[in-house]
Amino acid sequence: MTVAIIHTGCANIFSVETALDRLGVPHILAEQPAEASGADRLILPGVGAARPAMEKLQSAGWDAALVAETRPLLGICLGMQLLFETSEEGGVECLGLLPGHVMAMAAFDGGRLPHMGWNRLHFEIADDPMLAGIDEGDHVYFVHGYAVPVTNHTVASSAHDMRFSAMVRRGSVMGCQFHPERSGKTGARILNNFLEFGA
Question: Which of 2, 44, 107, 109 has the highest Cβ tally under 10 A?
Fold first, then answer.
């Protein structure tokens, strides 16, 4: 099993690499699709802004490659948002692998933006394989100011005033709005579920 981490130029690549090291999973950093040809799984990480991340993917040819991709793909944080059709962050068109749109989170009394810290998971599709070994109410770590409302493909939701998609899946395309690589044992189990998906 080898995982290719797609190089988006974003800030959480090292933490994803470290999490895979802890799980004993070989991985490569792929600037271009051809560099990931021997990998069994793909991870699209992301911390930063949607427009420069999409520009990086487009310039490397990842946008077209991911549309045609059949291997399991996991988007993390911004990487999950890029799986959808559009983002209000910069008014950018994204990959369109999942139906839906990324929205700016609204400020509210008693809350702060960006949403940063530990929050609970609420199951929307309790028998989804991505939730194997995870309990309703388990905590995971978020850092984001944009979010996707709950859709038919939402596996688990969370709330920061608004209810939003915390985990999504359609076929072999999966996403976590939180950072599994920074979410302790729960995050490690979710990464493991991704690695075992379809195996």
Answer: 44
- Long-range own/partner contacts, residues 86-90 (CB < 8 A, 24 or more apart): 87/50, 87/146, 88/146, 89/49, 89/50, 89/51, 89/146, 90/49, 90/50, 90/51
Q: What are the catalytic residues?
A: 77, 179, 181
The per-residue pLDDT for 169 is 98
| CATH pick for 3-196 out of 3.40.190.100, 3.40.50.880, 1.50.10.10, 3.90.79.10 | 3.40.50.880
How far apart (Å, rounded) are the C-alpha atoms in residues 120 and 134?
11
At 51 the pLDDT is: 92
